[in-house]
Amino acid sequence: MLSGCCDKMICKMILTSLVSNDADPDSGADKGFMMIGKTMCESDRAYPAPGSEAQSGSLNPIGLIIPPSAFLLDERVFVSLGILKIASALEQQGHAVALLDLSGIKNFDDALVSFLDDNVIKVIGITATTPQLPAIAVVAATIRRLRPDIRLILGGPHVTLVYAALKLERRTRPGVQGRAAQAAAQLEEMFDVLVTGDGERAVFAALAPDAPKVIDGDDNKGPYFLSNADFTASPLPARHLIDLNTYKYSIEGSPATSLIAQLGCPFSCGFCGGRNSKSLRIIRTRTVESILAEVKFLHKEYGYTGFMFYDDELNVTKTMVNLLNGLADLQEELGAKFQLRGFVKAELFTEEQAEAMVRAGFRWLLCGFEAAHPRILTNIRKRATLEENTRAVEIAKKYGLKVKALMSLGHPGETEETALSIRDWLIKSQVDDFDCTVITTYPGTPYYDEAVPHPDLPDVWTYTQPETGDRLHSENVNFMRTAEYYKGDPEGGYVSHIFTDALSPRDIVNLRNVIERDVRAALGIPFNPSRAAVLYEHSMGQSLPPFILRSSSVTQHQ
Question: Which residue intervals of 196-237 are DSSP H helices?
Answer without folding.
Answer: 199-207, 228-233
